[in-house]
Specification:
By secondary structure, the chain is α/β, with parallel strands linked by helices. Helices cover about 20% and strands about 25% of the residues. β11 and β12 form a beta hairpin.
């Protein structure tokens, strides 16, 4: 895959990202934006979105998605049950998929893959009512220029990460490292080994006090042969 100059990822904070694709599309991944406590103010206003990708239904990954999708008219892609929930909220352009299937959106190919997590949707927000949202997912995203990343979503390490790497060609992995709700640096280091990647973009850390994992910890564990980006909300990679 090599070095990519055509796709830019901006970290909104937590597990949320704004992506400028090689073809000029704006993609939002796990859109916790306006209510994200660590998001820079200039990223809390969403003027445009072409494609919204959702890994799972927890509030810190989905609950600004309805408002953004209605305002922008974007296409929303998620696992079938979560996609149906979005459609039930009045979102017109909804594309539901499932693990192993590849869906293409104007040259951007998205394959939903396994994740070790949960996926209950809190509805209404702030209540104790949980709606089944299907299973959580990671994603392999191939952009229009062929640049491909593995976006793990919220997950623990699992042995089939090696299988995902065998089936797809990517050099970059976006991995949660915060601990408490996802894997921390020690378990993420094992994920790096299984995936065989040389570049890791950490996420889902630092938002709340329990999310104690830090990029420097993961870098120490994986050694100098792997580049772990040390990022803060608002950074572009």
């Amino acid at each position: 895959m090599g070095i990519n100059e055509g796709v830019k990822f901006t970290w909104i904070g937590h597990g949320s990202w704004k992506v400028s694709s090689a073809g000029g599309k704006t993609v939002l991944i796990d859109p916790w934006v306006m209510n994200n406590p660590v998001a820079p103010e200039h990223l809390k206003t969403v003027d445009a979105c072409d494609l919204m990708l959702i890994t799972h239904g927890h509030f810190d990954h989905i609950h600004d998605g309805v408002e953004i999708a209605k305002a922008t008219g974007c296409t929303v892609h998620a696992i079938f049950e979560t996609a149906n929930w979005m459609a039930g909220k009045g979102i017109e352009k909804v594309d539901g998929g499932n693990k192993g299937g590849t869906h293409e959106f104007d040259g951007i190919k998205v394959t939903l893959v396994h994740a070790e997590h949960s996926c209950g949707i809190t509805d209404p927000p702030g209540s104790t009512t949980i709606i089944y949202g299907g299973e959580p997912c990671g994603m392999v995203i191939e952009f229009e220029n062929g640049f491909t990343v593995y976006f793990a979503g919220d997950t623990d390490v699992f042995s089939d990460m090696r299988l995902i790497a065998d089936l797809h060609q990517f050099d970059v992995a976006f991995l949660p490292i915060g601990n408490y709700y996802t894997m921390g640096p020690k378990r993420a280091a094992k994920a790096v080994e299984l995936l065989g990647v040389k570049t890791v973009v950490p996420m889902h850390f630092g938002t709340f006090p329990p999310l104690t994992g830090r990029p420097s910890e993961l870098q120490e564990l994986v050694g100098s042969g792997v580049s772990v980006l040390d990022i803060k909300p608002g950074d572009e990679v």
